[in-house]
């Protein structure tokens, strides 16, 4: 918390989704959950915020758990080196997004999850409720509507992908489910608990297995290389953990075998990652040595 304080409020709150622009740029929270399910926090660690792209790690995990490796024929797993909402690689790469965490890739994963489960938004919401133990966790319909209203880029991406035959469901349906899972509202506490399956090598809170050990390893690897977009190299350098950011200002990081950390601060750097959350995670891993390296 002390490490984050000097940078809180530096950076910009996301305003391309108008409903997010009202967030307090100086807010901050941090939660730490351990593999045995204990959770501790500082600051506003129990205050709900818009999870945005952190949802992409849950859609990917569920799509792989339910449908297996066929997904990888429709989305790659290389860092894009481009902004999270970029369209540029889609044309030369024939509608196959670089990785599941940029918006283009997440749209394909949402489409796959929707085909597999019949209701992508409910699959993500119900999983988060179960793992966090928070039955009230839900989507904010105002945020989802705001995003849809200002969603020209995501609509362009989705139509472009569909033009290559890489969507199975109607574009409007896929986008609605994508906006709804991005608009889920959860706290650092909820997200740290919900991410523990990746620290437990695939085991859920109730002890059942969501992913094989090897699948959990692979998801952590893609988080490390792609989870923070064109700043993934910088995040790996500073924090040394697999992590996923969202433009609501949250970052969820995994310490395999030990636990998870979720930090939140709404002001973002130019790549769309929280300035305060990354600073706090950097300081935490440097002080404790909790890292994959
Ligand atoms: O589609 C969007 O632009 C947002 N729902 C999610 C983007 C996001 O969170 C990028 N992450 N830092």
Automatic annotation (TrEMBL):
Keywords: Acetylation, Hydrolase. It catalyses: L-glutamine + H2O = L-glutamate + NH4(+). GO terms for molecular function: glutaminase activity. The keyword Hydrolase applies. GO terms for biological process: glutamate biosynthetic process; L-glutamine catabolic process. Its EC number is 3.5.1.2. It holds the Pfam family Glutaminase. Substrate binds at residues 53, 103, 147, 154, 178, 229, 247. The keyword Cell membrane does not apply. It is an enzyme of class 3 (hydrolase). It comes from the Bacteria. Belongs to the glutaminase family. PANTHER family: GLUTAMINASE. Homotetramer. This is Glutaminase. The lineage of its organism: Bacteria, Bacillati, Actinomycetota, Actinomycetes, Kitasatosporales. The gene is glsA.
